[in-house]
Amino acid sequence: MLLIAFSLNVIGLGACTSLADPLTNQGDIPVIGQAENHIAGQVAYTSYGNATTSAGEQVLWTGLEGKPLVLNFWAGSCPPCKAEMPDFQEIHEKIGDPLQIVGIDVGQFSGLGSKTEAQKLLDDLSITYETGYSSDPKLMERYGVLAMPTTIFIRSDGSIARKWAGIISADKLRAESEKLLRD
Questions:
Q1: CATH number assigned to the domain comprising residue 175
Q2: How many domains does one find in the chain?
Q3: Environment class of residue 140 by beta-carbon count within 10 Å: exposed (0-12), middle (13-18) or buried (19+)?
Q4: pTM of the predicted model, to two decimals?
Q5: By the 8 A CB rule, do 4 and 150 touch?
Q6: Which among 27, 139, 157, 171 is least buried, having the fewest CB atoms inside 10 angstroms?
């Protein structure tokens, strides 16, 4: 618990950081307090709007409907978050329906942006995959989010396959997404 509080304070000071590998500022790390294969819990969020949900619509994600999920925690004024979002958009466009991608803005909890900054970023980058913001400050703790951005890869059975802290490269995102589709 202390590690999480310290990490969030570091993030809150404006540093997009990862505790996984200080040399590369990215890494594959275990989910804190949760083993790999742990079943992902529900996520409630308010949609920023896309092809399937309206802006302001309350969404309760409780299941995968047989599809794997790439769950990305990001913030509107986090440069690494901004840098990787076009790669998530590309995966969304190329793979489409068999893979769910959901981006949850936690800028208001990390000190890295407001909802207004997040919406501007989404508009500037023409992001169409599902995005929203959470009203639950414990969401970051439940998923062990210690860095911005953080990506959780969840199998179609709901088990957590992998967690990536910090910016993820396009090649790694593609490989992990394709692996989810094979699992």
A1: 3.40.30.10
A2: 1
A3: buried
A4: 0.80
A5: no
A6: 171
